[in-house]
Design brief:
This protein has a five-stranded antiparallel β-sheet with strand order 2-1-3-5-4. It is an alpha+beta fold. It folds into two domains: 101 residues, Ribosomal protein S4/S9, N-terminal domain (Ribosomal Protein S4 Delta 41, Chain A, domain 1), CATH 1.10.1050.10; 86 residues, Structural Genomics Hypothetical 15.5 Kd Protein In mrcA-pckA Intergenic Region, Chain A (Roll). It starts with 9 loop residues before the first helix and ends with a helix.
Length: 213
Amino acid sequence: MILARYTGPVCRLCRREGQKLFLKGERCLSPKCALEKRPYPPGMHGKGGQFQHKASDYALQLREKQKAKRIYGVLERQFRRYFQEALRSKGLTGATLLIMLERRLDNVVYRLGLADSRAQARQLVRHGHFAVNGRKTDIPSFLVKVGDVISVRERSQKTTYFKEILERLGERMVPEWLHFDRETLTARVVALPTRDQIDVALNEQLIVEYYSR
């Protein structure tokens, strides 16, 4: 069975988790954010204050796993594969899992400020606007490694989108593990990210506990 990607209103996902997952880019920072207007879960019983109800350990673990999937836009089967690989790797499983998610090409494009959200970054990658080490790469889940060079393809730089994005570059802080040349729209992976460089509000230990049941 192939699970389809969620195509409904993404603001409902933030309301379901009770926190901003930044799925709509700059809108999430504006007064238009749905969580600002309706800070309770969606549905007919949402306004009753479900966020305050005491949840079981399993529910907390499940919600944290769901949050991670939604933040990075990963489906269950792929997310489980990431976890299994992290489990086989050295180091803390939860931190390794997040580092792998950060290494996805769509996330790197987002971190560089070349897209307003990871969903938009995923679309840009799929449309073939980026190259890794000089080769066109249109796979959002491609995992970059130290030394890789990510660039906007020459023909894509001439498009209206990337001409406009040049005017807004610098509004978002590029993480230390990436070096970005804004003039050439080229970035290099100078190191793997560390857990303290990953600014996502997740308790990865709960995810480890969920899959360790």
